[in-house]
Write the structure tokens for this entry.
Amino acid sequence: MSDTFSSEVDVSGEDIHWNLKDAMSYGRYLGLDTVLNAQHKLTEEHDETLFIIIHQVAELWMKLIIHESQGAIAHLRDDEVGPALKMLARVSRIQEQLIDAWGVLATMTPSDYLAFRDSLGPSSGFQSYQYRTIEFTFGNKNAAMTRVHKDNPPAYKMVMAALNAPSIWDETLAFLARKGYPIPADRLERDWTESYKASEDVEAIWKTVYEDSETHWEAYELGEKLVDLEHKFQQWRFNHMKAVERIIGYRRGTGGTSGVSYLVKALDLRFFPEIWTVRTLL
């Protein structure tokens, strides 16, 4: 009986480009020589490679979240809600990748991590300027957090731009106002460097939207996309906290925070308060 399975793919009939000496290749397009040689271990410990790659990949995903979030904001400003919804949905899918990554990191045991932790010095995810940019873009503004970036001018410029710009929630309310919803004036013109404070008037508007979603479908769908985004962000925060607890317990963080206790505080923060509190009123 002839074997119907083969260990090789027959490429004899394919018109494959074998000679790429002077052409654009996969590796050149993606800059893989740079990306794959960007893991510089400080010790000989096996698990340090895992630690570095997990955080580098997270930063790449965060770069894409910033790109898509800024795109969504630009479309909202132009009253183009369709493309904005698509980009917000993409942000939520990216967040799933970040959430799942903590499960990979959690395969590292306390002894694995402690074997190279001291080599990290004061370096910490707290210093991630892309993470801070995302937080500010979503609405968790805190000017004090920018201080850690002052020694890195490009990072400081990025974080300060996000601090001084309207958040995605501010842009959502401005969009609703242009659509005729009675958003209070003090929510449309305010100090953008301050975190947003919930408004009973805004909550009442969302109550109207949710009670008659067919009439207010555009606003309703936008609200649900933002709920999904914040839900995923909180899942990321929770998984981060549990991964840290699992690996280092209640040790102080390398960046100087209290570690798990500090991360727990963030679980109570809200970006878009009224679309959460309105659920109790329906």
